[in-house]
Amino acid sequence: MAVTIRDNLSPIVQEPTGPVVRNEVGHPSFTLTMDGKTVQAYEGQTLLSVAIDNGITDIPNLCDDEKLEPAATCRMCVVHIEGEPRPLPACSTAALPGMVVTTKHISISPAISN
Ligand code: FES
User: Fold this and answer.
1) Which residues line ligand 1 (CB under 6 A)?
2) Which of 3.40.718.10, 3.10.20.740, 3.40.50.720, 3.40.190.290 is the CATH number of 29-113?
3) Do residues 54 and 70 lie in contact, with contact meaning Cβ atoms separated by under 8 Å?
4) What is the pLDDT of residue 51?
């Protein structure tokens, strides 16, 4: 049986990875792919917000309003995320590093009409 000894005295060494780009409130940035383009996003941003920030403004949305609590009820903004079994609402799905998102996907249309 292996015994692990935890050493709390050694400093954690991290290799510098270059300057981290942050938004105005200090959230670090990362990239993901949206409709085949590499786009920049910030921690805590929704996919709808990332899309708008990067010029993808044709995702329909109805219930996303900054004056309202996030409800994600209308499902007009659904997008396809690689690896997810179903389309997810862009207005309430957090952007994550390395995501591959398609906003115009043939299997999304039936999801909107149901
Ligand atoms: S805008 Fe209504 S679910 Fe996203």
Assistant:
1) 61-64, 72-77, 89, 91
2) 3.10.20.740
3) no
4) 96
